[in-house]
Design goal:
The protein is α+β, with helices and mostly antiparallel strands and 152 residues long. The protein is built from four helices and nine strands. The chain is globular. It binds zinc ion.
Amino acid sequence: MNNNELLNKLLGISKLLVMKSDFIGEEKLHLEVASTLAVASCPDCGQVSNQVHDESEAQMVRDLSIAERQCFLVYRARRFKCEHCKKTFVERVEWKRANVSYTERYERYVYQRVRRESVSQVAQDEGLSEEAVQAIFEYRAKKRRRHAGIRK
Ligand SMILES: [Zn+2]
């Protein structure tokens, strides 16, 4: 097993491959990842496109720590072109919400911690701002209420 294969298994996010890994100082790990999906479906018409138009700048997406090292996925979102609409769109991925810099499972982890610990404690341990922790908590709490069918 080479390093990237091992890291893929550790990461365990389907349709995502580790291309490169780097230690950043003693405390951080960067995993450069790429999607293995060749296509994406257009949010407007639903048609599947295999034409990658371009890629975003690298985004740093916080994920669960690995061996007590803060883990960041270095991810470039792909923009596809829809032949039908003649428009371009950014692919959606199931492991991360659009426009946030955390994985879904990291948000779940932070949410679970805040249920037991104070916001400031979690923020300090995770190296996040209290505002960021609070925002994650509120988003997940709202989502849970929706799932439970309870209106706010
Ligand atoms: Zn379309």
